[in-house]
């Protein structure tokens, strides 16, 4: 762990971030970080407990003179997205994140950094540990499994929290105050197929798409970034029609909330078509790279001769797969009519796996309008069912409806303007924040979301801005000083 990172200001926050990043914390495997957080609270002699699903709650009394203020719940999630570059040797299950400083940014060596949402967790830890920060009565809510289903927020029962105000520290631009977010639903298409033997007189190739930026499938979906699954499918579909290729294997993407950066496939063609296929492959590669030259300057599409597999897909199923994937919508589907420049509805074709007679396609569909979310999900269902797939929906979670008249919003806007001499941007985001889910069991809680500037979340290019963390910390402390008094006090 970089000593230089620990020496950054505010040291109390960066040290807690470094401590946290030493603990492996993948989604659905949070046992170690849950215990880490339980030990942290108990060592401070604060009320510390976990609920039935594993969320950790730590409470701290108000400082002197602040006991008449409303209870504040400070909320961040413990898990992080685990992604690494293909050439990075790293075991997320046992290794801590290796950080370094690059100018005004903290980055990780070939992996995701965990600033999403580790910076929020670290800030809350620093507040809990502090002895000289003025604050109202606070409770920390550290949720689990935000990145792959939000099951921690979904499992939190009503009546557990004391807070009348919730500060969610999980946004990624330090000049934004978030008052709404998108909901989401997983769309999964599956199908079995029969494999057939490869006859003599064939040669095989491995095709690799890599070097894409990737990123957050909500926050970055509007940027025109390449999707490795769609690029690979385009290549295979084109060559299926032209050279009657036979697909043996496809493996693309990983997590549903990450725009796919890489995909590989193995295909077989008649040996007599070898030269023409290679020539035309280069031409198609040039076309695709040219289309994405602005947003994906490091895109690589490689063709390498490989050992001929013994089996490939049945031709009809292959055609249904490639046509179904070609028709499946990816990217922005609709923009919001009520909030300027906000993506309303989108889909990420996140995962494609074709192997050993089984096909599985995973998508994450998002929308700030629940009916629009389901409309696009049904569009995808129809697309894949026409191609002979069995389609299931799962992991649905609600959006968070904006409240422009929020009392805590007024506090945040006022403090931002007085501290930084400019107006903040009050926005809704296309990511899935836990506020919408928490609001179902705590409908009267006044919620807001903000955070430091983080770029490239959910990808190995993830980075957090050092100066922004300083700004965020200053802002958070000022907000806590201005929490409204209890109504009946």
Automatic annotation (TrEMBL):
Coiled coil: none annotated. GO terms for molecular function: metal ion binding; metallodipeptidase activity. Keywords: Cobalt, Hydrolase, Metal-binding, Metalloprotease, Protease, Zinc. The keyword Lipoprotein does not apply. It catalyses: Hydrolysis of dipeptides, preferentially hydrophobic dipeptides including prolyl amino acids. Residues 208-293 form the Peptidase M20 dimerisation domain. The keyword Iron does not apply. Its EC number is 3.4.13.18. Its cofactor is Co(2+); Zn(2+). One of its GO terms (biological process) is proteolysis. GO terms for cellular component: cytosol. Belongs to the peptidase M20C family. This is Cytosol non-specific dipeptidase. It comes from Maribacter algarum. The lineage of its organism: Bacteria, Pseudomonadati, Bacteroidota, Flavobacteriia, Flavobacteriales.
């Amino acid at each position: 762990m970089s000593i230089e990172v620990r020496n950054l200001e505010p040291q109390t926050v960066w040290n807690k971030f470094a401590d946290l990043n030493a603990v492996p914390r993948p989604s659905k495997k949070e046992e170690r970080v849950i215990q880490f957080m339980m030990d942290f609270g108990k060592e401070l002699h604060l009320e510390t407990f976990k609920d039935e699903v594993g969320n950790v709650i730590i409470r701290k009394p108000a400082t002197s003179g602040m006991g008449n203020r409303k209870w504040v719940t400070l909320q961040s999630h413990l898990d992080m997205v685990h992604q690494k570059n293909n050439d990075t040797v790293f075991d997320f299950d046992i290794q801590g994140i290796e950080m370094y400083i690059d100018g005004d940014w903290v980055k990780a060596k070939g992996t995701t950094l965990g600033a999403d949402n580790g910076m929020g967790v670290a800030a809350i830890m620093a507040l809990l540990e502090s002895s000289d920060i003025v604050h109202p009565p606070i409770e920390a809510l550290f949720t689990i499994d935000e990145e792959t289903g939000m099951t921690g927020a979904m499992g939190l029962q009503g009546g557990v929290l004391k807070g009348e105000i919730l500060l969610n520290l999980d946004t990624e631009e330090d000049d934004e105050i978030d008052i709404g977010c998108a909901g989401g639903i997983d769309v999964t298409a599956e199908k079995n197929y029969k494999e057939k033997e490869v006859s003599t007189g064939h040669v095989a190739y491995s095709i690799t798409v890599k070097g894409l930026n990737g990123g957050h499938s909500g926050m970055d979906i509007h940027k025109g970034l390449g999707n490795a699954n769609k690029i690979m499918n385009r290549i295979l579909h084109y060559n299926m029609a032209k050279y009657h290729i036979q697909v043996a294997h496809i493996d693309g993407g990983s997590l549903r909330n990450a725009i796919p950066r890489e995909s590989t496939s193995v295909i077989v063609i008649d040996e007599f078509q070898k030269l023409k296929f290679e020539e035309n492959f280069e031409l198609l590669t040039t076309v695709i790279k040219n289309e994405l030259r602005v947003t994906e300057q490091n895109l690589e599409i490689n063709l390498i001769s490989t050992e001929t597999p013994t089996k490939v897909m049945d031709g009809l199923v292959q055609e249904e797969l490639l046509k179904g994937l070609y028709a499946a919508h990816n990217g922005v589907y609709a923009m919001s009519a009520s909030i300027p420049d906000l993506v309303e509805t989108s889909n990420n074709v996140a995962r494609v796996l074709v192997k050993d007679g089984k096909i599985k396609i995973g998508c994450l569909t998002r929308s700030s309008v629940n009916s629009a979310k389901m409309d696009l999900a049904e569009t995808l269902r129809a697309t894949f069912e026409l191609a002979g797939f069995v389609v299931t929906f799962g992991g649905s979670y609600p959006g968070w409806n904006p409240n422009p008249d929020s009392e805590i919003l007024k506090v945040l806007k006022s403090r931002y303007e007085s501290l930084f001499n400019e107006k903040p941007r009050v926005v809704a985001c296309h990511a899935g924040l836990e506020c919408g889910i928490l609001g179902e069991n705590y409908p009267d809680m006044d919620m807001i979301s903000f955070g430091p500037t983080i770029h490239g979340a959910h990808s190995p290019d993830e980075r957090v801005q050092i100066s922004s963390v300083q700004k965020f910390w200053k802002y958070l402390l000022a907000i806590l000083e201005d929490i409204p008094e209890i109504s009946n006090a």
